[in-house]
Structures are given as C-alpha cells and as structure tokens.
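Record type: monomer structure entry
Structure origin: computed from sequence
Chain ID: A
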Amino acid sequence: HDVASRASNAANATFREDCDVMTPDGDALHHVPSKQALEDAAHEKALAEKVAAMNGMQKLTHRIGFSDTFLSGPKYFRESYEYYRAEPLKFKSEILSGLTVAVAQVPESVAFSFVALVDPVVGLYATFFMGIITALIGGRPGMVSGAAGAMAVVAVRIMEPDGLLPQAKLLEWGEIASCTGAAAGCKSLRHQANAARLEWLFMIMILCGVLQIVLGIVQAGRLMRLIPQTVMTGFVNGLAIIIFKAQLEVFKEKDWQAAFNVFDSNRDGLISTAEVTTVYAVELPDLSTSDLNAYVAALQTQVDTDSSGTITLAEFSANKNADIHGGYEDSLVWRTLDEGTTWLMLFYVFTSMAIVHFLPKYTKILPSSLVAILWCLLLEHAINRPLIHADTPVVSDAAPVKVDFPLYHTPNVNLTGKSFAHVFGITFSLAAVGLIESVLTLQCVDEILDDTSDATGRFTQECIAQGIANTMSGMFKAMGGDAMIGQSQINVKSGGVGRLSTAFASIMFLIFIVAASKVIELIPLAALTGVLFMIVIYTFDWTCLPLMSGDLKGLIIGRKEDGTREDYAGRRLRKFWFDTNDRIRWKDSAIIILVTVVTERTNLAIAVGVGVVVACLFYAWDNSTGSLRVIRREEEIFGCEKSTTRVAYEVYGELFFGTDREFTNSFRMGPDPRDVVIYMDKCKIKDYSSLAALNSLYVRYADVGKTIRVHNTDPDNRALMDLLGEKFLPQVIDEDLSVSGVSHVVLELAHAKRKASVEKFEDS
C-alpha cells in the first residue's frame, strides 16, 4: 500500500525541471513532466506492481529490507527458474563464476588453516559451511564467505600453547588430566591440551555464532557508520601485517637438536630409558611406576630401530609422528641460505607471486592462485624430488588431509560460568571482527553493482546469516569464518551476482576437497605462502603512505613561495612533518598508525574499538575549539509609553560537553540588564551538558535578580529540551519572548523605527 501511494504521488506531483505549456494569452495550461520524473514514476509503479505480486513471506522480507531467499517458498524457486530459463547467458555466467570461486578457495582455505594453527580439514569444512549458508540466506547475493584471514588471526590465540588456554588453565578446569592406571591409550598432558584447545575452538565458534545472531537482531550492523575510514585503513593494514608474519613460519624448521636435548640430559649424544622416564614422569605424574615404565618402553620401541636400548639423534628425528614427540614443545629455527631447500622454497614463493599478479592481465579462464599452486606442485613432484632431491615441505608434512563428508560433533568441553567468562572476550572479538569484515565486503559489492538502496536490512540479514554459519561450523568441526572481499570481487565481476553462483561454488568446493584430498596433501607450503603474500599486498592500503607522508614529488622537487613547483635543478628536501601540503592531518595519520600497531599487538576487535574512541576524542576536541560563537547585542523593546533596551545573545554552532564552558564564559553578567534573551535558533543543542549549562546560567542570573529566557525554533533542540530539560528548565524556555503581557518585537521593529514608519508598523 505504501509503495502504491508513493507511485501515485510521484505520478501526480510537479516534477523537477517541469515545463509549463502556455496559452497564447500567457496563462499556464498544464505541466509537462521531465524525462527523469517520468522514469522515477515508472520505477515506482513497477515496484508497486512487484510488491503486489509477492506472497506473504516475500512482502515481510521486503518490508524489513531483507534480500529474497529460498525461505520465501516455492514462488522464489519458480521465479528463479523462469528467470534463468529466459536468460541462459546469465545462468552460464553464474555457473562459471561459481566454479572459478570454488577452485580458488581451496588453496586459500588451506593457507588460512595454517595461520590458525589447525589442520587443513578444519578450515576446508569452515569454507563449505560459511559459503553454503550465506549463499542461501545471506544479505547480499553474490557475496562469498569462507575461512578468512580476519577470523584466523584471532582464532590462533585459542590454539597457541601460551595463548588463551595454557596447559595450567585446562588442568584447572578439568579439561585434561594425567593418566592413572593402565598405560594403554594414555596421552601426555601436552597432547591432551592440544586436543582440548581444538574442542574449545569449536565451542567458541558456536558461542560466536549465537552472539552474531543477537547482534544482527539488534541491528548492530548499523554501527558500521561510526567506524571512520582511518580506522578501517588501520584495520586492513594490521590484518595484512599479521598474515605476513604468520607466513614467515614456513621458513622455519624444527630444531631436532634442541628437541633431542630435552631428553639427553647428560649431553652424551644418546637418550637412555631412564632419561625418557624422567621427562614423562612430569608429563604423566599420576601413573604408577610400573605403568610409567610400560608406557616409556612402548615409546622407545617406536624409535629405537636397532634395539640397542638407547636412541640416537638420527633415530629420534627419523619418525616425526612417533609418540615420543608429544612430550615437549617444538623449537623452530630459521632455515639457512646454504641449504638448497631454502632457495627452492624462495623460488616457489616468488614464482607463485608472479603468476598471481601477472596471469590475470593475459587470461582469466582459470584463477591465478590455482595456476600458481598447480605449477609449483608440478615442479616439486615432477622435477625437484625425482631429479634434484631437495624436498621442500608440503601440506602433509604439516598435517594430514583426510577429508570426508562432515559429521555432527558436540564439542567435548566443560562450559561453566567461570570458563564462559574466560572465553567471552575472544568470542566477542571473533564476532565483531567477522561482522566488520562481512559488512565491509557487503558495502564493497554494493559499490561494484551500483546498488544505492538502503542496506540496513541487508546488514541485519547478513549478520544473522554469518551467525548461523559460524554456529553450524562449530557443530561440524570447523573453525568458522566471514565474508571474503577478494573472492567476492572476483565472483561479482565475473557475472556471479545471484545466489546460484555462491551456492554452486560451495557444493563444488565440497566435492573438490573430498575427491582431491590426496592432491591437497602434495601442495608445497611455499606455494601457499606466495599466494598469501599476494593477498597481503592486495590487502594493505598502500595509498595511505603518500597521504600520511606527503606527496613524494613534493619531497624531492619542493615548492616556490607562490605555490608553483621548483624545477629539478632547484630541488630541496621538504620538512614534510610540518608542511601539510599534499597529505592528511597528523591526527588521521596517528589513528591509522595506532590502529595498525594495536591490531598487530592485540587483536582486530580491540584495535577497532581503540581507533573509534580516539577518532571520537579528536572530533570532540576539534569541535570544542572555535566551533561555537556567542554574539552579544542590545535590542530595543517598545512598550505602551516608553522604550527600553535589553541584551540578547545569539549563539551559533554546536553546544555540547566540549563547548559548554566556552558558552557560559561568554556571558557578561555584571553589565547585563534585568532582561536577557538567548537565541538558540542557530545553535544545535547536543547533549545533557548543554541543558546543564543553560540551567547554570539561569541560576547565576537569578542570584543577582536578573532573568534570562531562551528563544528556540529548532525542532531538534525542542525535542531534546522536552526530553531532558522540562525537569529544571520550564522557567527558562519562553519561545514567544513575552513578559507581563507585553509583546516584544525585536529586529523588525528596530528596522521599522529607522525607516520612520513605527506608527504604521505598530498599528499592523
């Protein structure tokens, strides 16, 4: 009904740029609407007809601003079928775009799994659940979600041994315990702690999803408008730095000598049974002596290949999956440049980076990241290993990839009030980071598609969809995720603007990882590192650097006093920190640097919160200096017999907690007469501090026997006064400026007096 009314009003209104058709006598005959007005009216009419044809569920989603989904019923599927049947090229674009996204997501999901310190299958499952659920019910058709870097760099705190859940904390909660009784199936405390952290990761993702649903219902996505661009710049820059630092771990290898020395206490180059027993007596303190000896004997049998009763360094490092390696934390050392493996890894990194960057300039048939991975895969297993024998680490060396169809799993954790309070902080951080990244991606896709419609409802819908997807991820042994800006841009620019492309991508992704899990295990880690290095380069906002430091040409060439540039022969170095030409304010630069540093040192959610607070403080400071003007003048008041004067104060600008002191200090109480008027019509009253300042003035003037009254015609000021001021300002507000029944005419009457037409004016 509302849409139909708007259409009718648009059709009957007098439009902009209308033309009057005139009669020969010069009288207006009728109006001819402009072309733009006719197009607007036609659009409104078509929209009204579309709404009238909707079913009840579709009308509901339209009213609250949601995108149409399969929840609208069979009508949605029928309309989609008819649309793609009439537009076969659109159908082809959706399928091909979805296939491209599915293939490109495989290497990224594996790479971000390693960033979060989890097995690749955990990240692969997350990409499937995030993708399929947001594809079906998300707020922006065509937007891709999956295991993303923003969530991975926060989730890694859960999996780190010295992070959110150290071994001592898990022991305190009863999540892990030393073995008692038979040694069969006994695991060390470190091994148990790693498994417990993974279970807590799943539980935290469920809590994160529930929190995102709640935030979506209360429309927390609207708070995105409060995040300045400087904070978002620091956000993406910090994210890029974290991902970059995480990839450097690939160039480290296990320090087998340091691990060997954990057991070899006397440094004789051999590990005896007694030395193994000493280490595991700490890891399994509750085992009886006989059970501990049996457990150690089983460990030693795995690695003592020559049955000598002692373990050499070669035997210790030969089987990296032996149970004995669960008794200590790994120590990593940088690879040296005198190793052929290091140079080959660097070659893979730079080769994959070059392919990702340059291949799209020549062809976009296949995703450049996939081509880079396949090329390095071919070099490693067809040339390097058979001929060069400088084997580089592959995915299976970090973690085996055994992908089956996901099954439901309830996290095996003891969730109590104490443990919930401990993990709530990182739960909120994950929820906030996921929603910020998702809403940012939604805005980016809207800009690409030139969608200028109100996105508030779609923000809410996307928040709820992300929450459901993360909840499902936690229930199916996945790490969760959020929207992916890069993949979404690829999908939309390739023609995947509907739900078909992203839904098809998720289904094909699951088929790929189940069918090709053995191939994924063979991917060189250096190739994944190269792909992620390019993601780092594309994520970092490089344009902020010249804006923060100044125009680089200006730094070298300089400027003359008249503003023109000097020639090259007269170049000079400019003191760019004090010269503000060609760069943003130092406050904006400070916010970008602050958010970037806090992001790298803590986490993304805390950094955004700190950045918003600092930006608000800067804004309040800027508006508290010079933004308020108070002008004092005298007015003539004409009564029945004689005239007198009173003082009027005109206030311009914003009155809030930052300017209230300046406001009250602008009044001259001593020389002011008994009648004082404050004109607030051109001033914006912002908060309670403003009303308190007005009340303070009233009290001060009343103490010396004088009266002030406030004149206001601004409806926003009136609303705030009605809300907060009626309790202590009823005697101050006097909008008609009347005293004792005398009508006071101010500016108009003074002007009339100067024109010698006072009598005529008073009579009127």
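Annotation 1: The two ends are 48 Å apart (CA to CA).
Annotation 2: Confidence is low (pLDDT under 50) at residues 1-29, 551-560, 563-581, 734-764.
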